[in-house]
Specification:
The structure is a single chain. By secondary structure, this protein is of the alpha/beta class. The chain contains 11 helices and 8 strands. It has an 8-stranded mixed beta sheet with strand order 1-2-4-3-5-6-7-8, sandwiched between helices. The protein is globular and about 45 Å long. The site of D-malate (MLT) has 7 residues, from loops.
Length: 263
């Protein structure tokens, strides 16, 4: 991994391979390692850039009270500058990474060649969901992150994954437990405040691939089919034997879908 300074903070990033750049943006509250299988396969033909977002993995944090999706998007644009990536990138984001993709499209459209949206949502939180996030933010600040894996893992993985790949749940648990309460709280507050991007979908004028695990409990296949239908010309792939973490739960299908889309 490289450590790259982007002004106020350092971001850690995997930058591997050469060719057209592919930016892999992880979900919450995880790090770049969720993409390990895709980094391995896709870096054979592409320049794969897989950072840890601010506050996550090994990246630095600015101790923000709230980290907005705009801030994450601007960090990524600054990272591409620091890595001298002038060519437009394919932005591939999972879940929170997808929420960041909408902001990246709004703010840095000229840097984009294509979009890959994995297991994400275009709608903003309703009042109840936003309240739940703020509650988790205050709980982790008061009590630490111990309760977070129990709250999140059942939604992240399909029941079959728990049964057949217990090591995967354990490794996600360790990643979550290694994250600071302040970073979890700041990102939850940022997601609670994120804009609704439903109306943006019709404005997306880029090649797009929409990927969803068939058992995704957070961003369902039905909801993601709607996202795909609203983006002109988007391709849609439903991943069997996978929940919300489709790139981890069924890596060969997700890597092959991305490789095919990239051509
Ligand atoms: C993620 O995987 O990034 C989270 O599930 C996003 C969310 O909490 O909405």
């Amino acid at each position: 991994m490289n450590t790259v300074n982007i002004g106020p903070i350092d971001l850690d990033v995997v930058d591997r391979g050469s060719g057209a750049p592919l930016l892999l943006v992880h979900g919450f509250p995880l790090d770049h390692t969720m993409w390990n299988a895709q980094i391995e396969v896709l870096s054979v033909r592409h320049r794969v850039i897989a950072p840890d977002l601010r506050g996550f993995g090994r990246s630095g944090s600015a101790d923000d009270e709230t980290t907005t999706m705009q801030q994450f998007a601007d960090d990524l644009a600054a990272l591409l500058d620091a890595l001298h990536v002038a060519q437009p990138v394919t932005f591939c984001g999972l879940s929170m990474g997808g929420y960041i993709a909408w902001e990246f499209f709004r703010r840095h459209r000229q840097r984009l060649a294509a979009l890959i949206l994995c297991d994400t949502r275009a709608e903003a939180d309703d009042r109840e969901a936003a309240r739940g996030r703020r509650l988790m933010a205050s709980c982790v600040m008061a009590e630490g992150v111990l309760a977070v894996p129990e709250a999140m893992l059942p939604k992240l993985l399909a029941p079959q994954t728990f049964a057949e790949k217990p090591g995967l749940a354990e490794s996600l648990r360790q990643t979550i437990l290694a994250t600071s309460p302040a970073s979890i709280a700041a990102a939850q507050r940022g997601m609670a405040a994120r804009a609704d991007s439903t109306a943006l979908l019709g404005q997306i004028d880029l090649p797009a691939l929409v990927i969803v695990g068939e058992h995704d409990a957070i961003s369902t296949a039905r909801e993601m089919r709607k996202i795909s239908d609203a983006i002109v010309g988007a391709q849609f792939v439903e991943v069997p034997d996978a929940g919300h973490m489709s790139p981890l739960e069924n890596p060969p299908v997700v890597s092959a879908a991305i490789a095919k889309f990239l051509g």
